[in-house]
C-alpha cells in the first residue's frame, strides 16, 4: 500500500514567476481518504497534476513510501498503481465503453472488464460509444477505468462537479464502496464541504493562491455516513462556526 | 438476410453486425440512405449526359463530339488493347505516388504539428514547396534523375507532399492534450498512445487530404507522363492530341473519371464511416 508525502515550496506555473503553491506539506497515510478543499484557482488541480507526474516537480519533493515518487513512477516495473479521475470523463470517443477500459489493460486482464462494468452498473452498455451515454454514465466509465488497474493511489479532481445531485450522490456511494473494498489511498479535490465530509477521513483546507494549508480536520464520524445526515451537517456547522472564512481559504479566529 | 453465399459459407447481416469494427461500414454500405444517395448521383449523371448529347447535336462540330461518339471511342480503344494497359500503368503510378506522398506527408505533418521547433524550422520551406509550380518540379526531376520511372514518381510525390503536410499539421496541432494526459497517467505504450489515442484524432484530416490528394495526384501524373514517359494515359492523350482525336481524349478522360468515382465510392465512403466511429451515431 502507498503512503504519500508531499512537500512543495514555491511552485510556479510554467513560464511564470508568480507562485501558485506557496508551501504545502502533508502526508497521506496508506488507505486514507483525504479531501482537499480550496477556493477556485488555488492550484488544486496543479497539485494533483504534480502528484501524478503530469506536471514537472523539479525542485519539489513528492514521494511515496519514502521512495522518490517521480522516480518510481517512471521506472518501476509494476508501475500501474496510479488512478486519476479527471473533472471531465476524458474517454476516447472513437472507442466503445469496453474498449476504453481495455485500452489501459494488458490483453490477459480483459476478462475483468465485465466485472468492472457490472460493479459500476454498466453491464449492458459495454458496446456503446461514450457519445451515446449520459454524463453520469460517462463518469461511471471513467471510474471503472481508474479502478481497472487496481490503483494503490487514486487522485480525483472534482469528479462529480457538473452532475445533478442524485447522480452525484450515487457515484459518491459507488466510489466509497470501491475504495473500501480495495483499501485504496485517495486524494480527492473538491470545493464542496458536504461532499468532503461525506467521503473523507481527513480534510485539508487550502488558502487562495499562492496557497498554503490553512487548516486540517479529521472527520471523526462513524461510517457508513449519510449524505445530509444530522451528525454530518452538525459537524460541518461546527467547523464553519469556528472558522467562518474557511471555504474562502481564510482562517480568522 | 443473406448477403453472401459461396458453397456452404453463408454470411448474413447478423454475422456482420457482430463484428464491432465492421459496424460503421456496415450500416453505411447497406442502408437505405446509401441507396437514395446513389439514386441522386445517378440522376445527376444522367442529366449531365443528356445535356452533353443535346449540346453536341446542336453544335454539330467535329471539335465537340457527342457522348455516343465518345463511348464508341472508348469501345474502340478497349478493343485495341492500348487503353487497358495505359490506364493500368497510370493507375499504378497514381497509387504508388499517393501512398508515398501520404506516408511521408503524414509523418512530416505530425512532426511539424507536435513539435514547435521543427515547425519553425521547416515552415518557410513548406511555403516555398507549396508554391513551386508542379511543372518546375517535374522538369527538374527529369533533368536531374533522367527520364526514368522513379523520377516520374518522385516528381508527383514532391508536388503532393506539401499539401498533405499542411492538412495533417493542422490536425496534429488541435490534438486533445487531455486525452494524451490519460494515456500518460495509465502508462500506455508509445505505440498504443499513437495508434489508439493520437492517430484517431487525425483521421478526419487524413481523409480530407487523401481525397484532395487523389484528384491532384492523378492530374499531375498525366502531366508527368506527357512530358517524359512513353506509356500511360498522359502519353496516350498526347498522341491523340497530335491526331486531333477529340473523341479519344474525352474517352480516356471518361474512363479515368469513372475509375476515380469508383475509388471514391468503394474505398473512401466506407472508410469515412469507420473513421466517424462513435462521433455521430444513429
In short:
The complex is a heterodimer of chains A (253) and B (282). With 253 residues, chain A is α/β, with parallel strands linked by helices. Helices cover 32% and strands 23% of the residues of chain A.
Description:
- The complex is a heterodimer of chains A (253) and B (282).
- By secondary structure, chain A is α/β, with parallel strands linked by helices.
- Chain A has helices at residues 44-52, 69-75, 97-102, 112-119, 135-148, 165-182, 193-199, 230-242, and strands at residues 4-12, 19-28, 33-37, 61-64, 67-68, 82-85, 153-157, 185-190, 202-206, 211-218.
- A 10-stranded mixed beta sheet of chain A has the order 5-4-1-2-10-9-3-8-7-6, sandwiched between helices.
- The longest helix of chain A has 18 residues, at 165-182.
- Chain A starts with a strand and ends in an 11-residue tail after the last helix.
- The relative contact order of chain A is 0.18.
- With 282 residues, chain B is mainly α.
- Chain B has helices at residues 13-17, 20-29, 32-59, 67-80, 82-114, 116-131, 134-145, 149-173, 177-185, 190-228, 233-242, 246-275; strands at 2-6, 9-12.
- In chain B, α7 crosses α8 (149-173).
- Mean pLDDT of chain B is 85; it is low at 1-26.
- Classes of the chains: A alpha/beta (253), B mainly alpha (282).
- The A-B interface holds A 52-54, 79-80, 82-84, 86, 88, 90, 92-96, 103-104, 127, 129-132, 145, 149 and B 20, 178-179, 181-182, 184-188, 192, 196-197, 200, 203, 277-281.
What does the radius of gyration of chain A come to?
A: 18 Å
Structural class of chain B, please? Answer: mainly alpha
Mean pLDDT over the full residue set of chain A: 85
**Rg of chain B, nearest Å:** 23 Å
Please mark out the parts of chain A with pLDDT under 50 across 5 or more consecutive residues, or reply none: 74-79
Oligomer description: heterodimer
Q: Which class best fits the helix and strand makeup of chain A?
A: alpha/beta
Topology of chain B as a string of helices (H) and strands (E): EEHHHHHHHHHHHH
What distance lies between the first and last C-alpha atoms of chain B, to the nearest angstrom? 21 Å
Helix and strand pattern of chain A: EEEHEEHEHHHEHEHEEH
Find the biggest chain interface. A-B, 25 and 20 residues
Low-confidence spans of chain B: 1-26
